[in-house]
Specification:
Layout (H helix, E strand, L loop, with lengths): L4 E4 L3 H8 L5 E4 L5 H6 L7 E4 L9 E3 L5 E4 L4 H5 L2 H6 L1 H8 L4 H6 L2 H6 L50 H7 L3 E6 L2 E6 L22 E7 L7 E7 L10 E10 L2 E10 L6 E2 L1 H7 L6 H11 L12 H17 L13
Parallel strand pairs: 1-3, 2-3
Antiparallel strand pairs: 4-5, 5-8, 6-7, 6-8, 9-10, 10-11, 11-12
Helix pairs in contact: 5-8, 9-10, 10-11
Bound molecules: flavin-adenine dinucleotide.
Amino acid sequence: MNNFQYKKEITVTTALEAVNSNENAAFIAGGTNIIDLWKYNITNPELLVDINGIDELRTIQELEDGGVRLGALVKNAATAYHPVIEKKYPLLSKAILAGASAQIRNMATDGGNLLQRTRCYYFYDPDVPCNKRVPGSGCPALNGRNRMHAILGNSEHCIAVFPSDMCVALAALEAVVNVMGPNGSRSIPFAEFHRLPGDMPHLDNTLQQDEMITSIDLPSNHLYKHYTYLKLRDRHSYAFALVSVAAAFEMDGNEIKKARIALGGVAHKPWRNTEAEEFLKGKTATADNFLIAAENVLFGAQGRGENDFKIPLARRAIVRACMMALNPETQRPGAGPSL
Ligand SMILES: Cc1cc2nc3c(=O)[nH]c(=O)nc-3n(C[C@H](O)[C@H](O)[C@H](O)COP(=O)(O)OP(=O)(O)OC[C@H]3O[C@@H](n4cnc5c(N)ncnc54)[C@H](O)[C@@H]3O)c2cc1C
């Protein structure tokens, strides 16, 4: 039995004060990840600061520049089914709905989704070493069971993957994460929010311990006509991605004006390679060109044994997702080109 204190706060300021009053404090939003981590003895906060009473973080707001601001406490389901998101950012709706289960999406918040932790089996087992859980203790996944693990951006310290679906779409949409801390607010471009493991795999992201996510901004774009989120996994529902692809295009006839491709399930952060997107700019939308882009995205990919299959799987998934994105009609279940 772990003793802990619980406080419910109704303003950002008091919640930040509370969390900064104890260095072993944590926020709780939907609770769908932190409670599991607690039960597995991966985390043991002394003070739990409940932020669910902060109403100002619960709104979806259209911005003057045509973008949209998602409050950190908006539920994943509410985001996915919001008419403005369905219309302007259907890629985001599709990615969210590919994740977890209806019940979990009803509880999970948008801010919490960004901060969920890896599903690496070794991370979840406190009886074995794990550099992410106990820095310097080792990484049994390197030469162990690594079927789910990363093929890109690895280090010799960690090959865990970041499991979110929502964040793959947010990476493709170039979202911006707004945070508040004791010294005021700052905005973090999505590409800089999550980290690669390097020699500090215990740090998943660039949020500081004393900061709170307040909202996520979606910039205005024209990526709502040609898009898809393709998630490949062991079971069709309620399973994390082996490989996922968010693909979106702005098209002029069959010519690609703008391309966005992001991958999930392959790295310690959502993986995006802007060189591959640049390559596609001005090109005709063909499977051959998408294959060249896929090779670009996967440049340097390396398996560790059980996860070798992810490299050809990701290559095929990128081509297939790009083809599907051209025609949203192909997104009906079971439809689409089989590559
Ligand atoms: C069985 C299961 C299956 C799942 N499958 C998928 C899946 O397929 N795809 C997928 O993407 N996700 C999946 N998830 C993960 C789920 O999406 C996350 O657990 C959820 O998004 C986390 O949000 P939350 O609000 O519940 O976070 P919490 O559990 O409340 O918090 C998570 C972390 O974020 C911190 N935190 C929360 N809000 C803030 C904030 N505003 N500012 C600063 N810190 C904050 C907390 O302190 C904690 O460290 C699954 C989860 C479960 C349990």
